[in-house]
Structure formats: structure tokens, C-alpha cells
Amino acid sequence: MASKNSSSSSPNRRQGVERSNGDSFRWVGGLVLLFGGLFAIASVLFSFVSWDVDQSILQKTAEERELLGNEVENLCGELGARIGRMLVDNSFGVFGILIPVMVTLIGLRIIRQRPLLVNHSILSLFLVLILGSLTLGFAFGKNWSLCCSTGWGGAFGIETAAWLHGHIGVFGTLILLLGGWILTGVFINRNFINKVNRAGNVMVDRGERIVETVRRRVSGRVVEDEPLGGDAFRDTEPAAQEPDDPMPERSGAGPSSEGPQIAESEPPAAEDVDAAVLRAAVQREVRRGESEPVAPAANPAGRAMHPDMPEDDPFVELAPDGTPLAASHPDPASAESVDEEFTEVDLPHSENRVVMGRGGLVELERPAVRQAVVQEGPFTEILVEGASGEDRSAGVRPAAPVHREPAGERPVFEEFSVSGNQEEGLAADAPQPAAVQPVPEKTAEGVVVTVEAREAQLVDEGRISTESYDPLKDLVNYRKPPVTLLEDYVSDSEVSDEEIFENKTKIEETLKNFGIPIQRIKATVGPTVTLYEIVQKQGVKIAKIQGLQNDIAQSLKAESGIRIIAPIPGRGTIGIEVPNRNKQVVSMYSALRSKRFFDQVQRAELPVVIGRTIQNENFVFDLTKMPHLLVAGATGQGKSVGLNAIITSLLYSKHPAQLKFVMIDPKMVEFSLYAKIERHFLAKMESEDEAIITDPKKAVYTLNSLCVEMDNRLELCKKAGTRNIVEYNEKFTSRRLNPMHGHRFLPYIVVVIDEFADLIMTAKEVETPVTRLAQKARAIGIHLIIATQRPSVDVITGKIKANFPARIAFRVMQMIDSRTILDRPGADQLIGRGDMLISKDGELTRIQCALVETKEVERIVDYISKQQGYTSAYTLPDYTPESNGEGGLGSEEASAPVKYDSLFAEIARDVVSGGQISTSMIQRNYEVGFNRAGRIMMQLERAGIVGRQQGAKPRDILYHDLPSLETKLQELGLF
Hints:
Largest sheet: 9 strands, mixed
Shape: flat
């Protein structure tokens, strides 16, 4: 017997390794199913509470959720909300929670090493899942749903119930559901039939008694002791009962009240007797062997007599007589060596140890207790004591047993004490340590030898950062304003079919009266005008139709005239634009939520949505492709609203690190609202106090400062070997440009100038920097938007028009103004109130501008200003004007130094001597113009001789004696 066990030890060891690998996969798979099922259960439970909010959020796109800042309320996140909607709403309703319950049970079954079969409980849950969903869908449908959107029964239950109702009717569906629940109860519990029979008997018995009582009370002619139905039914009459006595309450569900009555009416079933006998035998076995667990049986009969045994244990130990052996508690020291596939028991006789395995009977030998093996750690300390000395006379000190900690927590040093001869010094009961490195013979007595094995520490490759530079991390918590800050203007009235048919008929009659037959006509309804496209018969000239513009307008009774497009580019038709009787308002809310704008936000550098076309499509363009924009129109026709729409689009699409604005507002009231976002989106010179430029001379300095910024950026692009800002920023973010060499991330700069006509009248020299920026600045991310209400040739000069290919024209009063803006007529035929024409790439498009009111702009800038911003506005380089003898006044300044005016030193001395200074004083005393006097005052301020202007107060004089002033002038190179 012993020889067999020793010979089969090596195959068993290999089988144990294979089984351990299989156990690992089993545990991993089981745990994945277990925790996945628990997560799904939690997701479904939370979805019962938050299904209405979560589904409204899940129906939106990712961009809309990010823009609106919506988050699901399900505590399991977006995945949990989707799982809840899939299992409850789109599947089985309330009973959908049984699916993750089944997954959890399967995971537990795999972990417990049960055969991976569809067992009784999972099949029962599946039947309850199908029938429960179908029952609720049939009973409630889509009504009274409190935990899901589709109904209590889910999509499966509702649709299946509707299909059954259409094929077998209500009565057939009830019969089917009743039969299904009865069969499910029979499948779950075999005694279900007996319980149903008992309940039925009780109901029949109670019904008979009620009928008898009613019959006796109603029919007084029948004798009380006469059996119901006469002598023929005497033998079948139930026991006599007084009609006035209260009937005992009986319930088919209560065992206490039902049991005695059933015992009186019918004998117990054979199955109940067998079950009672089996339970009594099991209780006797349990009381007799409480201290010794029952061993698993190898046959079904044995398992029936021992219900506490595990069902699916694949191995059973048998005694020589074939009876199952009781398992004893194995020694903990030997538990590790026992194979997990075998059940280890202690028997009184070792020769009777037989194990039933897959290959048949296997005889095992009791394993010996193995001693714990001490593994070597990274450091080993050896305490060496000499053969002679005080320690030797003191006796042998046994080594303390080494405590082995789990992996990853073992100590760095392990000490072994060796005194004299190791074989004699070690205690008999102490575990033997692992093989210790030999100690040299010349080692001194009591010396501690420390063996260190150090390895070079390397950083994991995944921890080495290779990500690109992200400028958005400067304001990582910045959030774009939500669209809910805007108002959605909904028009009550729309263009009716009667109006379209009436206009169509009048156009046909007018053209027919003038001998112009047409083949077909098509109407396209827009928010402000309706486009009627007509196709004339062959041989009719387009010019003839164009000459009838006023006649058609008279026939249609149009309030502001019509506009004829002959022909429409790319269509081969002639368009007649007729104003609608009831105009619709295009809100910025709907424009920013359009899919067109979202697509452009992902692709374009500076996306702008400005309004809606005649085809009711949102018009979106990229400002970098324009690259500059000229806006013109009469007063009150929508220019300021159009500028606010452009600025709002950029605020909603870009981060403060990507975009900066330079706003010049000679009217002082148009852009004052945006002063709150100075630290986020605005740029200014360092010497300026306010970011919104309202002074014309400061506007000139700011535009010249932008020219310096343009030159600096072009120099950086030259050093980096790039041609535009996109390539440069791409190189910088990929860390291919060194910031130590002056390289930096370049944001886009959009210059918005309102009332350019007033600006160019006050400061004529503004045209030069505007022209320079329009010619060269687009490549390095500086773009201009210029608006004016006087589109004359002295304002919109040839230099400006040549560099502004994209133009927007609101309504003007004269055709000559339309030709000045668009180089063609059309703007004089607009109806106003945001109606505009945009010329882009040679194409002319009619658009209804989106409405942005002042209160909406206030809400947007308030939302942005409350967030974290930069310490200051984006700094532009200071500009010092160079005197060149312009203007004809003060021509003696031709001999002045390069940076300072020729009168600078003289005026500075007068200032210090007199103690006061002003621009008008310089004009009067030195007979110079206003522009030159302003430049001299700015030079005095920047040189530190006078202080800053403080409203109407006089400037402070910072130098109080001439010697110190002369020292300052020498430093500046002025004598």
C-alpha cells in the first residue's frame, strides 16, 4: 500500500499544479461575474429612483451634456444609468433586476466549484422573469409607471402582451398566464400541487356550506335535518352544522388552520409520509453525529439519507464494506499538503484509506508534517560566535524561529544566531533555517556579517510623461458658459399655406400679364422672407424679369419691397425674395445648440454662428478663413447685435488660453459690458488702465502695439520654421520649441472696432496700422472685425476693401452705399431688424441675424467673471511713437531724437518749473496740434516726469527740482 502511494506521488503533484491553475481561472471568472452582477443590481435599484432625469440626459449627445453641464443622478454613473434603462425600460420592467441576480448566482456557483449548469434556482428565476414581465405588461400596459418610462412590465412585457391580445384575446391571455404561473409553481416546489388541491378543497367545502346555509334560510319549507336534494343525496351529505354557528375561518395559506381540517377530510399523501420519515431520520443522524460531520456519499441513496452533504463533491471515500467514511478534522500543519481535489479524513486504520478519483480507487498515505522552510530575503544577518569565550561558557543560545510574513511584507533583515557547532547549538524543536552562506574562518568573534544585494532602481516606462503641453491647464477649472443663460425666443405665428399660395398666384399673374410664362414655381420659407424660385420658358430673357421688380412688389403689396436674384448661382432658377407678414425671431440659444455649430467647434479654429438663412439653416463660418470681416449698415439696423452675436459665439467655443479680444469702442457704451472678463479674454498694453479702448489716440497706440505684436510673432515663426500660427502652436505643444529661446504659446487675437468712421475722423493715422494688420496679421492669428454706420469711400477706402474680402451689409438707405460695401446692389432692399447680406468667397447669402440682448450678455460675462482667471489681461507690447514730421505743424521736430519729440526736453523743464501741465497747455504754449501734444504728454508720462491722468484732476508732477530733471534727461539721451 505504501509503495503504491509513493509511486503515484509525482503524477498527483503534476495534477495538483494543473488544478491550481484551473482554480485561478475559476476564481477570476467567478469574481468577475459576482461583482459585475452586484454592480448591475445596484444600477437597476438606483435607476428606479432617478430614471426620469437620467433618460433625459442620456438622450442628449456628449457635446450637449458637456455644454449644459448635465450629469446623471444614478450613483453608478452613466454606465449604471444605461444598464438600468436596458434591463428595466427596454427589456423586462421591474422584473429586469432578476437578470443581474442570475449573473450573481452563476458567479457564486463557479466560485463554489459547482458544475456550470443551469440549475433549478436559475431556471426558476428565468421563468419568473418572463411571466412577471408579461403579467405586468398585460395588467398595466404603459399606465401608472413610477420606476421606468415604458411601464411596469418593460418593453418586452408590453409588446408581448399586445401581441397575445391581438391573437388570442384577453381571455386566452389570462388562461395562458394562469397556466404559466401554475407550471412555474410546480417547477419551483413539487408540493405546489398538493397545496393547490388543499386550497381547492377548502374553497369547495366552504362554498357548499355557504350554499346550504343560504338555502336553509331562504327556503323555510325544507326541514333542517333533511339532506339537500332528498334521499338520493343522503349518503353524500356533509356533517350537520348549525346554521347560526359561526363558521371557522380557514385559509389555504395558513398551515395552522388548514392542517387539522385537511386531516379530517382526506388521508395524508404518500409523498408527505415519505418526507416526514426522511426528515426524522435526518434529525436523528444530525443529533448522533454533531461532533463528526457526515462524509459525502457516493450514491444517490446515501445522499438522500444525508441531506447536509455537499451535492457536487466529485470524490468520496469509502470503507472496505462500501459505506461512506466520516471526515475528521485534519491537522493544520498537514492541511497545506493535501490536494484540493481529494477529501482528507483520519481513519483508525491507515490501511483502509481509499479515495475515489476520476481514474478509480486511489490509495493514499498519510502525509508527514513538513517543517516550514525559511526563504532567503534580500538581506541576511549572520551572528557568528567564537568557539571559545564568554559566550561559549554561557551555554548554547538557540536561534529564535523566523516568522515568515506574507509576500510583499517580509522584513528586510533576517538574523540567524550560530554558536559554536551548528549541529549541537540548534534546539531540537526549532525549525532548521535555510542554507546559510559559509562564514570565513578568520571572522572575528561577535562580528555581524551583513550580506546586501542591491539592484539599480528603474522607473517604470509608463510613468515617464510623454504628453504634450496643454495650455488649457493654466485655467483647468474653467467651464464654458451654458446655453441656458440665453433666452429661447419662440414666435407664435408662422407663415401660413394661404399666404404662400396667395403670393405664388400673384407672381404668376403678374408675369403672365407682362407676357412672361413660367414653367414651375417653388417656395422656400425662411424666418424673415420667403424665396420663390421660378423657371421661365425658353426664350424669355432674365433682364425682362428683373425690370418687373417694382411691378411684382406692387402686386404683392410688400411693405419693404422685394429682391430679385437672377439667376440663383448653381441652380439655374430666378429667385424672388418676398418679406413675410409675420417675421420670426432667431434666438442665439437655438443657433448655439445647432448641430452645424457643434461640428464647426470640433474642426474650426474660430467658429462663429451668426444667424439663419432662408432655408432655415444656421449659417456657421470660421473667422480664420475669412480672415477679416467688414460690417456696415445704417444706424439701428442690427450692427451692434451682429457684433455681440460674433463675440458670443467665440466665448462659447474657445478657452481663455486660446483667444483674446482687443475691443475699441469710440461710443464708450457698446463694449463696456465685457470689461468684467478682462482677466479672461481681453488684451491691452501694460501701460493702459482699461482694457476697453475708448480714446481715439489710445486706439492708435493699441493698433500700433498690435503691429509690434505681429512683428514679434512673425519673428518667432521664422525661428521655428513655421508659416502660420497653427503650425507654430503644434510645434510648441509637442515640446519641440524651447521656451528659453523666447517661444511661447500664441493665442488668437480678435480685434473688434465699432464706429470706425468716427475713429478715422478723429485719428486719421489709424488707417496705417489697420492696413498693416489686414495685410500680414492673419497668418499669425490676429483678425480684424470693423463696423461702421457710414459706408462711404472716405471711410471704407480702397486699401481696407482690398484686404477685407468678407463683408456683412445690414440695411442701407442708398444703392451707392450697398455698392460701397458689397460692390453690388441689394443691401438697400433689406427689411432691417437684423436682416443682412454676407459676402463670402464671392457668394452673397441672405441671413436673419441671431438676437442677443443686453441682459443675456450680462449673464454670460457674469458667469465667466466669477471663475478663476489670470492675474491680469493679456499683455501687448508698449508702443512708443516715432516722430516723423507729419501734419505740417511743428515741422521743427524733424531734428528730434529717434524716440522723443524735439520739444520734449523744453516742455519737461517748463513742467517742473511751472508745476502744472495739460495737453491743451502744450497746444497753446507751443503751437502744436492736438495729436502731437497728446504724444508729448504720453512720452512725459512714460518717462516718469508726470503722473497718470485721474479724470478731471490735473496730473501730478513727479520731479520738483531742475537738477534731478537734468539727470533724468541725460539718462534719456536728451541735453
